[in-house]
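Risk mitigation, structural track. In case the binding assays with FE2/S2 (inorganic) cluster fail to produce interpretable data, a predicted complex structure has been prepared as a fallback.
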Amino acid sequence: MYTDKVMDHFSNPRNVGEIENADGVGEVGNASCGDIMKIYLKVENNIIKDVKFKTFGCGAAIATSSMVTEMAIGKTIDEALELTNAAVAEALDGLPPAKIHCSNLAADALHEAIKNYKESKA
Ligand code: FES
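Fallback model:
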């Protein structure tokens, strides 16, 4: 039911952990299942240098968190804000329809972390 890419990112998630003195932190929860995702950012000259995540959630949530970290690293803040939930799911070659809501956490947590970064600089 899961694509090879989903299984790969679930079994071998990239960028797990947290960043000390992160420039931005975002946390979102999924009200229906209670899962939580937290994303940490390191930003230099408006470029996302590093992203780490901690996800207390299902396999699809872990795979999408892992994928979103890979997609965000190296992007400018504005480019990363344009990363959509659909783009993350697509990069994983799709998710089963029942699991699409899980993938919504990833880009949302990234956007929250960017918002937090922008607020801390304001
Ligand atoms: Fe909760 Fe997937 S079941 S995020």
